[in-house]
Amino acid sequence: MKSKWAVLARDTFLSIVASFLTACAISAIDRLPYSPTRDTMTDALRMPGGFIAGLFYPQGIHTGSGSPHWADVAVAGNLTFYAIIWFVCIRTAFLLIRNDRLS
After folding, report:
1. What is the DSSP letter of 16?
2. Any residues with CB less than 8 A from the CB of 84 and at least 6 apart, and which?
3. Backbone dihedral region of 37: left (phi > 0), alpha (psi from -120 to 50 degrees) or beta?
4. Is 18 in contact with 70 (CB distance < 8 Å)?
5. Nearest CA to 90 among 12, 1, 6, 31?
6. Amino acid 20: pLDDT
7. What is the pLDDT of residue 1?
8. pLDDT tens for residues 11-51?
9. pLDDT of amino acid 49
């Protein structure tokens, strides 16, 4: 049986990798032909990063003398948000698989 720390490290690593793959998939959507649906979908998928960047730059990209790192914070926010979502999904999946084996 693996230690709890090893399982946590595995799930964290998998969620970070899945988060980067999710960010790549969201970026790949922009290469599809233009449609309002495509733009709405990418805006919605990028919104969590915008909300997190808004905590650091309340006026958006117009904060103070400009905010050259607003986009960096938004990307980091999206990666963090999707890593948390993936972590919960991965933990739930492994727990369900483990419980299924025990019963």
Report:
1. H
2. 15
3. alpha
4. no
5. 12
6. 97
7. 58
8. 999 999 999 999 999 999 989 999 999 999 999 999 999 99
9. 94
Residue 29's closest CA among 38, 17, 18?
38
Can you tell me the distance from the alpha carbon of 40 to that of 50, in angstroms, rounded to the nearest whole number? Answer: 14
Instruction: Please tell me the predicted confidence (pLDDT) of residue 61.
Output: 63
Would you say how long the chain is, in residues?
103
Q: How far apart are CA 81 and CA 34, in angstroms?
A: 27
How is residue 97 written in tokens? Answer: 């698989």
Any idea what DSSP says for residue 33? Answer: P
Which CB contacts under 8 angstroms, 24+ apart, belong to 75-79?
A: 75/23, 75/49, 76/49, 76/52, 77/48, 77/49, 77/50, 77/51, 77/52, 77/53, 78/23, 78/26, 78/46, 78/48, 78/49, 78/52, 79/16, 79/19, 79/20, 79/23, 79/49
